[in-house]
Amino acid sequence: MNPMEISAVIITYNEERRLEDALKSLPGVVSEIVVVDCQSSDETVKIARRFTDRVIERAWTNFADQKNFANGMAMNPWVFSLDADERVSPELRKELLDLRTAEPDVDAFSIPRQVHYLGRWIRHSGWYPDRKLRLFRKSKAHWEGEYVHEKLVVKGSIGKLRGAIHHFTYRNIHEHLARINTFSDLGAQKLYARKKKARWHHLILLPFFRFIRAYFWKRGFLDGFSGLVISVLTGYAVFVRYAKLKEIWKKGERIEPFPY
User: Fold this and answer.
1) pTM flag (> 0.85)
2) Positive or negative, the Cα torsion across 211, 145, 158, 30?
3) Which domain range does residue 15 map to?
4) What are phi and psi of 7, to 5 degrees?
5) Domain-ending residue, one of 142, 167, 192
């Protein structure tokens, strides 16, 4: 069988702080790196060009469209989709190197993702294993979703890898809250586009239920202080999303989406 040729694809916007470590984790695992940048104003493009000459600058549309465009720029039949705040773990690296020796008999692979948060690796709280479809045949998959939480749709069979993608999503609680603020804007807009409205149970019961689920059912308490913060902010994120949805309906206006 022919060896498996993989292109790594990353979309970026002002990622000068995190991109280099992501790119450093890729050599040897992939034969091509493609970076599609959303007109960054920092050193993101300069850093990317130290690792690859396949750097394309493109105006922002939305997450799914940006990733589909990036996939189309890849020259290899297999795509490994990575975010700038993610890294290939040593275990995943070994698994990918073994996988590349022959063409797989599936069309995509799900990969567990493990977050490093507030000084520890999270193994509970609803954040792990958090499997994502990130390695796939370009001809068999595409991204869908207009706002946030884009989804990869695969037409074919899916296998599983055991090695994890390491995710360094937030340096501190401040960054976590900032991301909740951004994503709740996009989440509220998505609900508004679907003509959904915020009811009292969305604002009171659902946030509390999400906290209970994360802290007790998903065993967030085993992640210590980090698990408590995750669980509380999981509920808070739901409340803010629906509160913003209610605000949109009251004002009769949409929130303008922005990349990160």
Assistant:
1) yes
2) negative
3) 6-167
4) -105, 130
5) 167
